[in-house]
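User: My collaborator sent over this chain with a note saying "see what the structure looks like." That's all I know about it. Can you take a look?
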Amino acid sequence: MLLVFCGVLTGAGLIYVRLAGADLSRRPAAAVANGQTVPPDRIRLAVLGDSDSQSYHDPRMFRDPNARGGPWRTTTWQWTEVLARLRGDQIDQGQWGAWGTNKYRAYFDEAFGALARAPAKEDYRYNFAISGAWSNQLMGHPMRQAIRLVALMDTEPQAWKGGVVLIRIGINDVGSHEVLDEMARDPNGPLPTARINAAIGEIGQAVALIRKHHPDTYVLLIGILSNADWSGEFDNWQSAKAIANIDAGLNRFDDGLRKLAAPDRHVAFLGDRAWFASLWGTRDDHGRPLYKTVHLAPGWSITNTSGDDPHNAATSDGHAGVVWNTLWAQHLVTSLNAAFGLHLKPITDAEVVGFLKPSFKANQRSASERSTSAAEN
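Assistant: Without extra context I'll predict from the sequence alone. Here is the result:
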């Protein structure tokens, strides 16, 4: 019994040692040093992040029928899903399927050298983004997104040469009402400063890990959005000073990402707020909502409002709607080409309209059915 007890303690100790650190020094196994290559006209794309990047059509994590488009969920697509449909012949996000386990199973898999990821979700294999994730989940338990992605990449290192890891995270760190409210009063306040510094530190560690193991893989860092532009916050911070302070605070976050990217030609920064403003605009000089309307086709007027039909920029649960995600996918392809000299075929405006037609048709049918039902009653 003593021998058994000691064996259990030893095993537990080994598990603890293997889970305790970020494992920045781990090297790829020799057996996978000459991994499978992919066709030169198709690049791999991996994603680390939060709900801004997790696919919407995951029946495991999004069981609420009102989530991600509600009654129009079948035609409400997230940007990775748009890319898969419009540029799947050039961009490889991995097979769609059920990936991951609960965190305890992931701990044991990882401790004994097996590939691990948590939580369980249905998504593209290289998409590690999880709704609700903070930046500390890039390297820390229970998700360890960057560490577990790199472990997966290490099994096929040649395939990731010229590939891209996109990191889009931080809105849960610095985008809450509490943080923005303090930022509106003082962009250098203790809470915003602590959150920004911590997030940039975590992202920096993730970049270092990826670059150490895969020096020929590109990393794209996505800037932070402002939740002051979300309709749920329109009644708050209605002064020029407050909005200027929020922008100044968020600029510190983006400047941190720029600093990470500056010394390395394989790392680039892509701002998000400027792109949003180019489409929907900003608040006015008094901090009041004065947003524009995006017109894509006759009858397609998309406003910076929240709702599940495609005429709203955001869904009812506060995430990017199908138009936003489709236009962002278009923007991303152009930006990847510019940042890394890739040769992806740009997504044309005609492709955007063609892709969105089913979404607007579904909404139109639903509106017509409601109108007919009301007339009959």
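A starting point for your reply to your collaborator: The chain has one domain: 34-370.
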